[in-house]
Design a protein that fits this description.
Blueprint: H1 9-40, E1 54-61, H2 74-102, H3 108-114, E2 120-128, E3 140-143, E4 149-154, E5 161-165, E6 168-171, E7 180-183, H4 185-190, E8 200-202, E9 210-218, H5 229-237
Antiparallel strand pairs: 1-2, 2-9, 3-8, 4-7, 4-9, 5-6, 5-8
Helix pairs in contact: 1-2
Length: about 240
């Protein structure tokens, strides 16, 4: 969890406000209709295949698709473009810190991510409405992320994110203006298991709607992913 990420707190407050306004105006009713449809089909007791979340996705790199997302106000679109740039900058600073900690050549991870056209970067904007039966359904089912570096902006008030540690689920408490950093499967491969891709989930809540913005900085679509030779050599020596 990072607090000194350099992103102004008032800017993050603006992102939070616009996100909640957009959900109320454009997404809340659609989610309620989806849930009602499931109930009419008699599936309310069999919802293990459904995440209790309402989402949309933005692609930032290699080419933005934000203009194709329906129902975004001009202000929200402008702010999310700026948000993507700020998170991209933060994500691009992290690989060199990881290289230093691993004892490999500076810039190695960036090169591994690059491929022919550069890394990919996308944003998932998610809302987790209050759930009447959280014992039957997860906000987001347990999984690991397939990619590289994941930056999470949590709801500042409503929790729900959990990580699996030593076979037990551990809460990640919300901390206003912080960014939670998670590492994905491909980074685990590149680092030869030195960094682990952590299994996580979101627990549905009965009280309070929860928001989450997850940014995914991943290797390019044509990047070839394999363990860093320097780390393989270290493993042999150990």
């Amino acid at each position: 969890m990072v607090l000194n990420h350099g992103i102004p707190h008032d800017f993050l407050d603006t992102v939070e406000r616009l996100k909640k306004e957009h959900y109320k105006k454009s997404m809340e009713q659609r989610f309620k209709e989806l849930v009602a449809t499931k109930a009419m089909e008699g599936l309310e007791a069999e919802v293990t295949d459904m995440d209790w979340e309402s989402t949309f996705h933005l692609r930032h790199l290699p080419q933005s698709n934000i203009s194709e997302i329906p129902d975004l106000s001009d202000e929200y679109m402008k702010v999310m473009k700026e948000f993507a740039l700020k998170l991209e900058k933060l994500a691009e600073e992290l690989p060199d810190f990881l290289c230093e900690n691993l004892g490999v050549e500076k810039g190695y991870l960036k090169k591994a991510f690059y491929g022919a056209e550069g890394p990919t970067f996308g944003i998932k904007v998610a809302n987790y409405p209050p759930c009447p039966t959280p014992d039957k359904i997860k906000g987001l089912r347990a999984l690991t992320d397939a990619g590289g570096i994941i930056l999470l902006l949590q709801d500042p008030q409503v929790g729900g994110l959990q990580l699996l540690k030593d076979d037990e689920w551990v809460d990640v408490p919300p901390l206003r203006h912080s960014v939670v950093i998670n590492l994905g499967d491909q980074l685990e491969v590149i680092t030869n298991g030195k960094y682990k891709s952590v299994e996580h989930r979101v627990v549905a809540q009965t009280d309070g709607a929860r928001m989450l913005i997850a940014s995914f900085y991943n290797p390019g679509s044509d990047a070839v992913i394999y363990p860093a030779p320097a780390l393989l050599e270290k493993a042999k020596e150990d």
